[in-house]
């Protein structure tokens, strides 16, 4: 068990997807690809992309409102907003500050974290630590990424895989003394940073020698990332379960980062687990990076795929390279349904 002074629980979930949907067939207008290739290699059928005035901040704020309504927490009682994002609207201010403004959460501190597709698990580790220590009671955790503005739409090996979206969790000090965030473990391996990256284009001061900025879009070694995910995520899950004296038999549902159906299937095989226990919604959204775990949890709850209570494994992996796993008890009720 985690050595918590105060018990922690997740009380709300929410999501927001942009209006526009791009199907695999639509992508054939941009690159030499086809639905069969994309679906068989990734499981993706369509993805949402931002347009017009939609931004990372606007999606994040809507997902956050959804999670706040689910949890019933008073916006003014939120102590901290953590936004996990690698693709914000601005380098500063943080997306978390934009969310604070949109919500009127005037008593909350706010900051962003960058851990790519592991961002939600990293954020949960931070939220859990702040609450367990007694520093804060109510933390809003948002994951948002808008890859559509940072992929090379003429690179068929990457542009077909990603989608935009936001997901949110409300994490609180538990009112009834029961700790539901059983364990969270986060890891990183910077030696493989170049396998998946988006360079940030900047230009040197005109008074010094000029640099040559790289194209600001996704660069990915797909095969290396695939191998990394399939090797490291099962190990991470086993490590966290073992630490709290649980086994895969104690897990009701796995909510993994939704990157690729083949990755999820390979992880299930390595764990000798039934694929049925792995919730999947990536066919609708593609890889929504920091947002995917919270969006998947929200959808799974809306589709009544999560029992009450149940033990969930949440696991993320991505650029950095980063990865992480959380084991949580889910027993929150949607406060909107009690009205
Ligand atoms: C990206 C990925 C789907 C590619 O699958 P793959 O089976 O390894 O495919 P390859 O890269 O070997 O490409 C096979 C062929 O398909 C082609 N191809 C690539 N993208 C294509 C597309 N969208 N449509 C049609 N053909 C495509 C390649 O050009 C290659 O052709 P060639 O054999 O003539 O050279 C796979 O490596 C993967 O899922 N990696 C993990 C990526 C990921 O999830 N990243 C995010 C993690 S957070």
Short structural summary:
The chain is α/β, with parallel strands linked by helices. It has 10 helices and 13 strands.
What does this protein look like?
- The protein folds into two domains: about 10-175, Peroxisomal Thiolase, Chain A, domain 1 (3-Layer(aba) Sandwich), CATH 3.40.47; about 180-330, Peroxisomal Thiolase, Chain A, domain 1 (3-Layer(aba) Sandwich), CATH 3.40.47.
- The strands form four sheets. A five-stranded mixed beta sheet has the order 1-7-6-4-5. It has a four-stranded mixed beta sheet with strand order 8-13-12-11.
- Helix content is about 30%, strand content about 25%.
- The chain has about 350 residues and is of the alpha/beta class.
- Bound molecules: coenzyme A.
- Coenzyme A binds near residues 222 and 259.
Record keyword descriptors for this entry:
Peroxisomal Thiolase, Chain A, domain 1; five-stranded mixed sheet; alpha/beta; 2 domains; four-stranded mixed sheet; single chain; 339 residues; globular; binds coenzyme A
Task: Set out the fold topology.
Blueprint: E1 8-16, E2 20-23, H1 24-27, H2 35-42, E3 46-49, H3 56-71, E4 80-87, H4 95-103, E5 109-113, H5 119-132, E6 138-146, H6 156-159, E7 164-173, E8 181-188, E9 196-197, E10 219-220, H7 222-243, E11 253-256, H8 261-270, H9 282-285, H10 292-302, E12 310-318, E13 322-330
Parallel strand pairs: 4-5, 4-6, 11-12
Antiparallel strand pairs: 1-7, 2-3, 6-7, 8-13, 9-10, 12-13
Helix pairs in contact: 3-4, 7-8
Coenzyme A binds next to helix 2, helix 6 and helix 7.
